[in-house]
Amino acid sequence: MVKNHHLAKSISDASWSLFTDWVDYYAKVFDTWSIAVAPHYTSQDCSVCGTRVKKSLSTRTHKCHCCGTVMHRDHNAAIMILNKGIKSTVGHTESKASGQNDLYLGGKTPLDKLAG
Questions:
Q1: pTM for this model (two decimals)
Q2: Where does the pLDDT of residue 56 fall: very low under 50, low under 70, confident under 90, or very high at 90 and above?
Q3: How far apart are CA 12 and CA 6, in angstroms?
Q4: From CA 66, how far away is CA 46, in angstroms rounded?
Q5: Phi and psi for 71 in degrees, rounded to 5?
Q6: How do residues 14-45 score in pLDDT, each as one tens digit?
Q7: Residue spans of alpha helices (H) in the chain
Q8: DSSP class of residue 61?
Q9: What does each C-alpha distance from 42 to 51, 75, 110 come to in angstroms?
């Protein structure tokens, strides 16, 4: 169905929505955090000094010309995402938040939403 260019975007968006619903659900089940973080520039910004290092998608190694950090692009992105998540929770002292509160009251799961 994704080959249909008129429906491809909405089908892909629905899949991501269901995926994030599952992540939120399991965060509640296992009593942990689930925080949405904007992925913009996470593989280009240096996780050590914050300098933006432009690179093509085929470049797999992050090499910062400013601080000399060298690591795999995905490892750098993971550290950036973790840092953004930590920054977004600073000052939150209330109960654990997953972005959308009480989604699954009454035993409902993302599968129930899919079934209708």
A1: 0.63
A2: very high
A3: 12
A4: 9
A5: -160, 170
A6: 777 888 889 999 999 999 888 888 889 999 99
A7: 8-29, 73-89, 110-115
A8: E
A9: 11, 10, 28
